[in-house]
Amino acid sequence: MRRKRTLILILATLALILVLSLVTNGTFDLRLLVLTPKILKYRGVIQQHAEKEALDAQLICALIVQESGFDEKAKSAVGALGLTQLMPTTAKELGVQDPFDANQSIAGAVRHLRTLYKAFPESPQEHRHRLVLASYNSGLGRVRDAQALVRYHDAGDPLLWEPVSIALTQLAKQHASMHHGVWEGNKPPHGYFEGASETLAHVERVMRYYARIRFYEELLFFL
Fold it and tell me: Is there a catalytic annotation at residue 67?
């Protein structure tokens, strides 16, 4: 009886997501609908590692949706691997022996996220999420370079996402004139950054998934 009731709740939830996605033309909802079986499969693993590091399991789930679509064997064009798309060097540093092993991939990514969260202790939570996600995507060094640029040009609060996101785009070579005086050698310590638009889009997609997952959190299966 309990299994039957659970199945009915799952089906009702799926139906609700489908209806809402059709009404709102929600591509984010549709993707979550398609990925529901995988989210259910790894729900417990995500919660386990999130609780261990005192992180938000819903945000980790949203990150995996964006990173790999819960494809355990995913491999990006630049060599990122597995569910959480860790680069081989990063995976090795995190003690992940097999990045295609879902449990290891999630555990490694969560440890990495905890380190990144510690890098922005004074940022308000919503801004902190975005700064961490940008660091996960482009590297903490890039975000630190952007913060330095914000400070030097007095372009806002470097603890907040908006001025840092603008500064990320200004790390490109075409904005080299803005780098004079900021760093020794007049060049970002981590090199020119030409991938800011991709990073900004990545952050916003993860946050959109995060918002949708939180919206559905009372409907049984989302984290």
Answer: yes
